[in-house]
Amino acid sequence: MSTSTSASTSGTGAHPEVAPTLDGPVPQTLGFLDQGAFWANLGVSLLGFAGVLAVLQPAGAPALTVTAAVVATVVGTLIGSAMVGLSAMPGAATGAPAMVLLRGLFGGVLSWVPSVLNVVQLIGWGTFELVVIAQAGTLALGGPTWAWVLGAGVVTTLLTLRPLGMLRLLRRVVTILVAISVAYLAWWLFSRPELDLAAGGGSWAGFWAGTDAAIAVAVSWIPVASDFSRHSRRVSTAFAAATVGYGITQIVCFVVGLAALALVAGDGDAVFAPMLAAPLGLVALLVLTARETDQSFANVYSTAVSVQNLAPRADRRLLCLVIGALITVLALGVTIDDYAVFLAVIGSVFVPLLGVGVGDALVRRGAAPDLSRWAPSRPLMVVAWAVGFVVYQLVNPGGAPVWSDAWTAVRDALGFTPPTWLSASLLSFVVATAVAAGLALVERRRRT
Description:
448 residues, globular, mainly alpha, transmembrane helix, Hydantoin permease, membrane, 0% strand, transmembrane, Pur-cyt_permease, Hydroxymethylpyrimidine transporter CytX
């Protein structure tokens, strides 16, 4: 695995592409505009228009007022996007993808655990993206849902074959069209005289649960950020592009989604109807539907790169073909109703994972990590990760019937009732950081 920044001029031609295997050179050719456009496009999602329901009506907590949901969206997105920016920095510094970086945190073999979990969550995200593309396409132009799923799956898979070319396309063309479309839809929705943002009732009691949902959407990109930032020219650029580009657009997307939901009385399945009512709504929605494939592209591509941590010599292109086919099949049987529960589990896994990385980095203070395939195992870091995961679940077990009930029973047995002001994301991050730092000190003393 090459992690040298000298690989920035590798490849042939003016625009080198990603090597098929992890043993190949790593082009580092992306500037702020390339990466900023990429992250900005990821922040605008058809899934976000309906998915903001997870903030407005957080799983296992009281529904929020629209004002509370907007504040939760802003707070959660700012926190989550900053976490994404932090997770992008190591990739730019080393040239290594996200799961390979975890070899230095957990060890070569133990890094397989988060790699497998990441593959599972990315397959889930890719599946939901195809579902929402099909939902929007069917509403806009009609036709059978399965045809839209198949079409989106094929396009997604083809885009993964030239990933850096995809990022350049986003910067040059797609971002401008998306910005115009979102601005037009926002103007149309907020100018409707029938829009009453206060009609839905709710309270502030579930504010932090809603904030955790907004954080969870952003931090789902933590375990893939370095897959793309490894091609950045500078570490600072990778951080700024991810934090600013993603943060601004997720906030805008969620707020537009709240307006659309208010017009359809909170019916997530009908969220696109008021958009289509605009004179140019069909055009705007078709632009966003076509662009949504960048979300599924990122998920499929990073799934393949995560698998390569387990099998470094596997050809990324072949992996993308297999994964693209898999999410297409899964999307034919999944509904958007499963989305909120999916988010609750994601946050509990990957927020404390970042905390462990930060805690370990504070102790190691810039020491070069061992990113070799068989790097020594560090089980104490897995312990810190598990502690953070448990803390998250005790504060916010989500809404999955069996899963949530089990953690609620544990919480009751401990006599623990979390206050409403407590954020599961923030607490688990802080605890995981502190435990990881402490255990890293123990490791260092053992070695000396």
